[in-house]
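The freezer alarm interrupted the setup, so I double-checked each line after restarting. Inputs confirmed:
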Amino acid sequence: MRKIFGRVYVVIIMLFLYLPILALIVLSFNEAKSMSVWKGFSLRWYEELFHSKLMVQAIANTFSIAILAALIATIIGTLAVLGLAAMKPRTETVLMGFNNIPMLNADIVTGIALMLFFLMFHWPRGYLTVLFSHTVFCIPYVILSVKPRLNKNTDKLFEAALDLGASERYAFRKIVLPELRPGIMSGFLLSFTMSVDDFIITYFTRGAGINTISTLIYSQVKVGIRPSLFALSTIVFVTALVVLVAVNLRQKRIDAKQAY
Amino acid sequence: MSELIRLESIVKSFDDTVVLNGINLSVAENEFVTLLGPSGCGKTTTLRIIGGFERPDEGRVFFDGKDITNMPANQRPVNTVFQNYALFPHMTVGENIAFSMRVRNKPESYIKDKIKYALKLVNLDGFDGRRIDQLSGGQQQRIAMARAIVNEPRVLLLDEPLGALDLKLRQEMQYELVRLKKELGITFLYITHDQEEALTMSDKVVVMNEGYIQQEGTPEQIYDEPVNAFVADFIGDSNILPGQMTDEKLVRINGVDYPCIDGTEQGFPPGRLVDVVIRPEDIDILPYGQGQFNGTIISKLFIGVHYEMLVQSEDGNIEWLLQNYDQHDVGEKIGMKVDPENIQIMHKPKSEAESARELDL
Ligand SMILES: Nc1ncnc2c1ncn2[C@@H]1O[C@H](COP(=O)(O)OP(=O)(O)O)[C@@H](O)[C@H]1O
Ligand SMILES: [Mg+2]
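Predicted 3D structure, all chains:
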């Protein structure tokens, strides 16, 4: 009896969580424009989506910004981790404190602060300011995911490589970097999803002419939602899902390796 | 035997703590030298200075007569077996062993032969494709050895290589190490905090405590003639007692005079206050009243081959530790005797530094 109750409970929770998304996905394939009547399967809204320059541009912006921001943040973040490791422990602790603050900060504060920063220095807001902002808010996450990989153990391995005659550069490339790689990968993926996900910071730092998926949907809501937005949302959801599954599978593989 | 490594007055501090306090050490070609001391006494730091991973604050490091104090680690002709092996986890066993040869751009055919040779040497034939995390502790230890020797170093530095293994495996590996050293014909500088390990394997044992070298010598010298109470205590269970020289080659312990073999010539003139070491196995048991002194057995423990007993002196001032093959009962009154050559006279610590070291006992 208890078991059945438990199962029902889980099912209800799942329905609450996923039914709306399922509805969204189903409606994105609906022939009709109505949100309540199913008139048959069609890709018409996807067609409309990809014929709308505005939307295609928004999709391109979203993903190019996400990839570039994640890439730059990953490089800067990883270098920062290497720099931190060479510092005195006290300095390192203080700097790590500074690293953690932006992550706790409300997005809206970060967004407005960045906007004011751009205004103050008369940077015309547009693609580059959004890219800059996304890079900035991703760096702390990269640092946080790479840093634990660089520890006493990696120091020892580095020394062992030197002991065996390797130059510092060779030892870093062949021994330390492979040790950091899982952290670098998850830092990149985390940055990517957070960038795709972001609305508030993008909203405050974008210029008039540029939209990402989230800001575009927001502006369209005011004039009335077309089902092509469902199609767009479906695409975003599926992308996020794929990345999430990829990350999880990776983690499973790593765990399985270490479980030996 | 020519000298291969020499440390000259090495001083090293971390932050404000002095970790090495003027270490002088000489290792001859083909010697098996062991640094022995309690955890934290500076053994690893000494080895790291030789390996090139730490720079001494003062003092010089010589290798084969050449000053290598400032030579980077990757150019030193020594290799290290690290405390927890530090095998490269993302590489196979074969790739680990090949590492130093790939660094030196050796031809692949040479590398292949060398991996085979090294694996055979450590009794792990055919393991080259294994992943590191598939190996047991003992196997990892062997691979760490194999990786360190393919480069043909003249000295192998080993930092507690058996420390992570269980007792039985540790004893097996002691023989393995001695065999390996013979086969390779190279010098071993070995670190351990296990006195039995040190005494079993070494040509020379260097006992360290709190950044000072306490004594160096053959295992027999260290065991039979400890220079101070620290060494005596660290090397094994001992009776360490305060005494005074009462005459030439006569020492008084707890009111009884014992003939011994040390006198003025050895620096112990009559009247001098001394410490005396008597090993528990060197005290002979006689019927009550027939020995040099008497006592009552207050505890008895069978430990493998022999019995270990605590015997209280008749005045109750001293508890003697005895080891004997014969069984005696608790409560039994016995007589005891010690041969003169088994009484080891030591200087009492004098300098402040020495006293500081003694505090640790
Ligand atoms: N990098 C370091 N920074 C600060 N203290 C250290 C460092 N390395 C070693 N020490 C200290 O030096 C002392 C000796 O250490 P070590 O040489 O590792 O001893 P052992 O190997 O004999 O156990 C210890 O008290 C240890 O805490
Ligand atoms: Mg150590």
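Quick read of the result. Chain B has a mean pLDDT of 91.
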